Amino acid sequence: MQFIISKLLSNYKNIAYGISSRGLKYTSTFQNNLSYSVGDDPEMVSENRNIFYSSLGIQKSQVVSLKQIHSSNSLIVENPGEHYNADAIITNKSNLFLQVSIADCVPILIYDPISQVVAAVHAGWRGTNSEIAFKSVIKIIEVYNIKSKNLIAFIGPSAGECCYEVGEETWKKFNTKYLKKHSFDLKKRFLNVKKANYDQLLKAGMLKNNIEVSQYCTICDNQFHSFRRDGKNSGRMFAVIGIRV
Ligand SMILES: [Zn+2]
């Protein structure tokens, strides 16, 4: 299984992090799919998950997952297992690995090397529009009494401005600086969700040098699962981060 590397996060050996992909060479649309709810063979999904977790050196029983709802809610968690009604998870407990599921939405992995706090954020256009990245960072700095300038973030592969076409009802909710005109359809725009999330991290006080943005677009780059591209035949990828002991 191929992982997407963050130069920034890879500097820290006391965390485990990983964002999966479909793979550069794929033979089926569901290759390396990690979701049980997209119509893939459950045995294959279990095997893929085992490979994913063991590659990161973590146990399934240490994972915190989410029933994602495209909200701006974040949760402070202290125990593994599935949590509900949120799209961001935060912890300062070690050996707890925070997981979000993605296929075009923006995964954001956050780490504070000074205070040992981690967060995983899932930001689709709705979450981005309701400022989940900004709110999550504010929650981290308030709850743990830390400085946002110490935080490191990796904004992972997601729908890119090159492909992420949105209709009028959606683009009207965003600042024009995140929109690019469509060449022939005046009612549509291309939305830059990565840039919008990047700006939210800056607004929350993070430093430019501490934010890495993946240039990969999940829609036009076939090594990723993409809901926009493949619809009901699309798999899901995981983005995970946690502190080792
Ligand atoms: Zn693209």
What do you see in this structure?
With 245 residues, this protein is α/β, with parallel strands linked by helices. The chain has one domain: 4-Layer Sandwich (CNF1/YfiH-like putative cysteine hydrolases). Helices cover 21% and strands 26% of the residues. It has six helices and 15 strands. The strands form three sheets. A six-stranded mixed sheet has the order 1-2-15-7-3-5, with no helix packed on it. A hairpin with a 7-residue loop joins strand 12 (179-181) and strand 13. Helix 3 runs parallel beside helix 5 (193-203). The longest helix is centred in the first third of the chain and has 15 residues, at 42-56. The radius of gyration is 17 Å and the shape is globular. The model has no long low-confidence stretch (mean pLDDT 97). The structure holds zinc ion. Zinc ion binds at residues 160, 162-163, 217, 219-220.
Counted by DSSP, the helix tally is 6
For the record, what CATH class applies? Alpha Beta
Strand order of the largest sheet: 1-2-15-7-3-5
Label the CATH architecture.
Answer: 4-Layer Sandwich
Tally of structural domains: 1
> Which series of helices and strands comes N to C?
EEHEEEEEEEHHEEHEEHEHE
Mean pLDDT, all residues = 97
Main pleated sheet? 6 strands, mixed
Instruction: Please report the total strand number as a whole number.
Output: 15
Q: What global shape is seen? A: globular
| Content-based structural category | alpha/beta
- What molecules are bound to this protein? zinc ion
Low-confidence residue ranges: none
Radius of gyration: 17 Å
CATH topology: CNF1/YfiH-like putative cysteine hydrolases
Question: What is the straight-line distance between the termini?
Answer: 25 Å
CATH superfamily: CNF1/YfiH-like putative cysteine hydrolases
Share of helical residues: 10-25%
Strand % is 25-35%
